[in-house]
Amino acid sequence: MKIDLNFRGERQVLEFELEGRWFQDLMPSASGPDFDLKPVAVNCELARVENQLVLTGRIETVIIMECGRCLEEALLPLKTDFEYLLVPAGEEELPPDRDIPEDEPDVFSYQGESLEIEPLIFEQIVLQIPIKVLCKDGCRGLCPVCGANQNLEACRCVREELGSKFSSLKNMKL
After folding, report:
1. Which residues, in sequence order, are CB contacts of 141 under 8 Å at separation 6+?
2. Which DSSP string corresponds to 85-107?
3. How many angstroms separate the CA atoms of 56 and 45, rounded?
4. Among 82, 67, 56, 63, which Cα is nearest to 23's?
5. Residue 38: how many other CB atoms lie within 10 Å
6. Using an 8 Å Cβ cutoff, are 18 and 39 in contact?
7. Phi-psi region for residue 113, left (φ > 0), alpha (ψ -120 to 50) or beta?
8. pLDDT in 10s for each residue of the chain, 174 residues
């Protein structure tokens, strides 16, 4: 979806929904993403502040991934706010003596009179994905011997207690 950056007035409010696999082409790898999304609701506002444009908004969706323990489907509800400072390409450089405070919005450069918003939305979604995805907090995972999903059934595997590498030192006399 393209946003016209030459809007009239001081503010432009946008509400839209993204459905399907719109983010497929935004992935850098040829294999594509290892997740899916329910419809993504986006509410945002584009405002002129002095000579700059500020894009603020909220994203709501559900990320569908594979649980890192049991490999079942994990649903991750997502509600996140974002803020971008939009600057024309070539003007995004900061003076070398200026640090960016943590509460300052992300800077995004654009060319022309419109902005493709999907990459910004996708970036915010990817930033919210946890490193270890679980279907639930108490997920017991798969049995390492037979592969049974321990959330659904108790396996009857005999597990051999493996000793520590240092167990032989326990009997050593000094």
Report:
1. 69, 70, 149, 150, 151
2. EEEETT--PPPTT-PPPTTSPEE
3. 5
4. 63
5. 14
6. yes
7. alpha
8. 888 888 888 889 999 999 887 887 777 766 667 888 999 999 999 998 877 889 999 999 999 999 999 999 999 999 999 999 988 877 655 544 445 555 667 888 788 888 888 989 999 999 999 999 999 999 999 998 888 999 999 888 876 666 677 777 777 887
The first and second tokens of residue 12, run together, are 């432009």
E strands present in 20-142: 36-37, 40-49, 52-66, 73-88, 106-110, 114-116
Are 79 and 57 in contact by the 8 Å Cβ rule? The answer is no
Residue appearing with tokens 């809007």: 7
